[in-house]
Amino acid sequence: MGTIEQLFTAIGKMLDAIFGIFKGQEVHEPPVPVSKEKERSGPVRFKNEPFMANYDKFGAEPVRLTPIVYDEDYNCGVGIVGPDGSGSVWGLVAPRDLVASWRATEILRKLSIIEHGTLCASYYAGRRNPHESDRKRYVEPIIGIIGSETYDSIMAMPVPEQIIRAILDYQDAEFSPSLYPITEEIKAGTIKWRQEFADAGINHPDDVEIEEERKAGVIARYEQLLCDYAERRKLPRECLGMNHVEGALLTLLDKGFKESSSHSDRTLVALSGIVGEIASFEFSMFMLPFGPPEDYHETKKKEAIEFSANWLSEDGEMRREDAECFLVLLLDEYFPTEEIAG
User: Fold this and answer.
1) Which of 136, 142, 248, 282 has the least C-beta neighbours within 10 A?
2) Do 66 and 155 share a domain, yes or no?
3) pTM for this structure?
4) For residues 311 and 229, is the Cβ–Cβ distance under 8 A?
5) Is residue 99 a part of any domain in this protein?
6) Residue 201 lies inside a defined structural domain of this protein
């Protein structure tokens, strides 16, 4: 079997391929703790027009502030720069949503007071499809300040070409901006579709809708087993971890798992559980600015295999030891070393 590092590389590629499955509601992660005040650093992708507001960092009187969209390696988001060049930034490791960050700068310009949490609230209020809890916590309070008419007008503003270019032109970066906001904005009518988007791998909303319907139909066929698996793992059926399992299941089917074998549906879900759980580990490591303990990957992979083997053997079709060996062989078959190396 390939090394654990190679396996995680393959899982990382799978995560890239299925990121659209867990964007939006599923990527409802707590913000990376970069919201504390610090000197502005990293590339600035967009500067909006300055505005006057009270910000206690600069005293009791209103000062001239410039809202910015920034994109650093380990986080990207919205910031404000004061008269002396210092200021504050707030961002996330993922998603790297430059469109929401730009809209946050528009929201900031409508405010007269900048307080702790204002940048965070402005960012979430600028997202096209915020999670319901974010809507209550951030969006509604912002609307209460600037008014629904102003908020709606900001959400309907055409996305500046400078933001579009910042998304497209930095796709070769190690931490590239998220592409899915362009799809969302095309659907909302704030960006017009063009061939350049297709060339960059951006999906048209119509195609996304068709694909989501297809995937939903596939997942529905395995719903009972997925519910059972989630219950055994003590996970809500709708959560990021189970979305990774769903993504793994779809990936395995795309690899011909059911076409080239007579393996049971339960085996498919068990193997998907391993791959999905490893994907969750990989995602959590991506979210952290420091590396894992030396044996972390190997330990977590072993735990994932053991859990799925226990679950697979519960129907009495095979012994637990046999189930573990069987799953290891399947993992090697569908994530072979030569494929990973490629």
Assistant:
1) 136
2) yes
3) 0.73
4) yes
5) yes
6) no
The predicted pLDDT at position 41 comes to: 40
**H helices of the chain, where?**
4-18, 98-108, 118-125, 132-134, 140-146, 148-155, 161-168, 180-188, 195-199, 205-221, 223-232, 240-254, 265-287, 296-313, 320-334, 337-341
* Residue 126: closest CA among 147, 146, 149, 107: 107
The rounded distance, in Å, linking the Cα atoms of 250 and 275 is 11
Query: Rounded to an integer, what distance in angstroms lies between the CA atom of residue 238 and that of residue 29?
Result: 14
pLDDT tens-place string over residues 147-204: 999 999 999 999 999 999 999 999 999 889 999 999 999 999 999 999 999 999 999 9
89 CB-near residues (< 8 Å, 6+ apart)? 34, 35, 38, 40, 70, 75, 77, 78, 79, 119
Q: What is the pLDDT of residues 284-302, one digit of tens each?
A: 776 665 566 667 778 888 9
Q: Does 33 have pLDDT greater than 50?
A: no
Q: How many residues does the chain have?
A: 342
- Tell me the residue range of the domain where 62 lies: 44-163
Q: Are residues 224 and 304 in the same domain?
A: yes
317 and 237 assigned to the same domain: yes
Q: pLDDT for 257-291, tens place per residue?
A: 987 677 899 999 999 999 999 888 877 776 665 56
